[in-house]
Amino acid sequence: MITREEAIKLWNELDAMGTMVIEGFYGFTLGAEEPQFVGGCHCCGCCCTILNAARLAPLAETIQRSNYRVVKDHDRCTNCKECVRRCQFFAHTSEAPDEKPVYHREKCVGCGACVMGCKFDALHLEPVSEDEWFHVPSSFQEWEERRLEYLAAQK
Question: Exposed e or buried b for every residue in 73-98, given b needs 16+ CB within 10 A?
């Protein structure tokens, strides 16, 4: 177990080397009564079956989206396609080499990988609306209650 500060220092070093470490998260482990540091994610499809379910299968409940989404400044886009390369959720697509990538907000989870890779500041993250905002549960019981409510609403 490492502290949040140690994780940030390590991720900054990895980022400087060109890796795509993009998020750390707090959550609940079995038996925990309050949120704690759980780990970090590269948001890549290399090994994560949860991420691959979100990417490749039409499942309603997969990973938790962040409270932010990408906003694209089309005038600043240079068509480098780094956003297409970095996005694991296919929120940025490109049909032809000479066309600028198209951004699909509904596929975006707000991880920020594309933003970190855009050297031309054509992408940035903005908070979602209050209707889309995810409020972090204060206990494991509340987490489970919200999950059950979500599943019931999907039927």
Answer: eeeebeeebbbbebbbbebbeeeeee
